[in-house]
């Protein structure tokens, strides 16, 4: 399980702001996000688009749907940075064929959790 004490308060504040922006934009239920934080991947279109919104907001996914974890490198705690980038880029490559950007974002973070639950973090 991910130890969120390695995330600085400044980054947590920033992520909370991104969370609020994406919830406002997408209208996803907080309960689904809470489940996602606990690695319960509910098949819900709004939840998938919430994940897409977060990845776009942090710069880890471009508008064409390409995922590049290194773009969000400053948000990733140093202790897990190398493994997060390696695993996320591998998962992104595996999920490239998923047409819908929301579904692709969701499938990528699910893959990241499945590959290494210790580096999975959702906000």
Automatic annotation (TrEMBL):
- BP term (GO), one: sensory perception of smell
Q: Which GO terms describe its cellular component?
A: extracellular region
Which residues are listed as membrane-spanning?
none
Which InterPro entries does the entry mention? PBP/GOBP (IPR006170), PBP_GOBP_sf (IPR036728)
Localization, UniProt:
Secreted
Give the chief site where it resides: secreted
- One matching Pfam family is PBP_GOBP
Claim: Mitochondrion is one of the keywords in the record: no
GO molecular function annotations of the record: odorant binding
Q: Which SUPFAM superfamilies match?
A: Insect pheromone/odorant-binding proteins
What's in the keyword line of the UniProt record?
Glycoprotein, Secreted
Q: What family does the entry list?
A: Belongs to the PBP/GOBP family.
Q: What is this protein called?
A: Odorant-binding protein RpalOBP2'
Native source organism of the sequence = Rhynchophorus palmarum
């Amino acid at each position: 399980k991910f130890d969120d004490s390695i995330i600085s308060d400044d980054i947590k504040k920033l992520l909370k702001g991104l969370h609020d922006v994406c919830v406002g934009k997408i209208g996803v239920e907080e309960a689904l996000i809470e489940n996602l934080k606990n690695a319960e991947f509910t098949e819900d279109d709004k939840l998938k688009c919430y994940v897409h919104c977060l990845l776009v907001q942090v710069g880890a996914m471009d508008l064409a749907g390409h995922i590049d974890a290194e773009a969000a490198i400053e948000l990733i705690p140093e202790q897990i940075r190398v493994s997060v980038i390696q695993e996320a880029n591998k998962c992104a490559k595996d999920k490239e064929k998923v047409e819908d950007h929301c579904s692709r974002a969701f499938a990528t973070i699910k893959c990241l959790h499945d590959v290494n639950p210790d580096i999975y973090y959702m906000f």
